[in-house]
Amino acid sequence: MALASSSRVIELISNSKNPKMDILKHIGDLSNVNVKFNMVLMATYIRPAKTAGGIIRPDMNVGEDEWQGKVGLVLKLGSMAYVDDADTQFEGEKVSEGDWAVYKIGDTWSININGYPCRMIKDSSIKMTVTDPNIVF
């Protein structure tokens, strides 16, 4: 797959009718990605370019979601993610691949996978999950 510029990818996703499907399509096969330990790999959610109320967000504002977005699509979990240890007991709480997860930006590490903005985060730093990523910002 040819790598697209980050701004082009953001434009595509911000105009998507089904962002989850389009993110997964763009990122492609992750079988060669091995997330380690208790880390979680998430694709950064880019909010729609046009709001529900019909307001068209400026490109600069849309692009900021790459750096300021607080929701991600869970792509892959490390083998030790959500395993109780001496410091953390999860009480059955966990995220799964395909979930929309909410996080504090400062708890993440920003990376690109196949030209798409992603974040790595420790399992216990995920704050909540939502069914609709548009309700969080």
Describe this structure in words.
The protein is α+β, with helices and mostly antiparallel strands. The protein has helices at 6-14, 19-27, 59-63, 65-68; strands at 39-44, 71-77, 100-103, 108-113, 116-122, 126-130. Helix 1 (6-14) packs antiparallel against helix 2.
Q: What is the gist of this entry?
A:
The chain is built from four helices and six strands; from the N terminus they run H-H-E-H-H-E-E-E-E-E. With 137 residues, it is α+β, with helices and mostly antiparallel strands. The protein has a six-stranded antiparallel β-sheet.
What key phrases describe this protein's structure?
137 residues, 6-stranded antiparallel beta sheet, globular
Give the helix proportion (percent range).
10-25%
Low-confidence spans: pLDDT under 50, at least 5 residues?
none
Helix vs. strand class: alpha+beta
Q: Tell me the distance between the termini.
A: 31 Å
Specify the oligomeric state.
single chain
Largest sheet, if any? 6 strands, antiparallel
Layout: helices, strands, pairs:
Blueprint: H1 6-14, H2 19-27, E1 39-44, H3 59-63, H4 65-68, E2 71-77, E3 100-103, E4 108-113, E5 116-122, E6 126-130
Antiparallel strand pairs: 1-2, 1-5, 2-3, 3-6, 4-5
Helix pairs in contact: 1-2
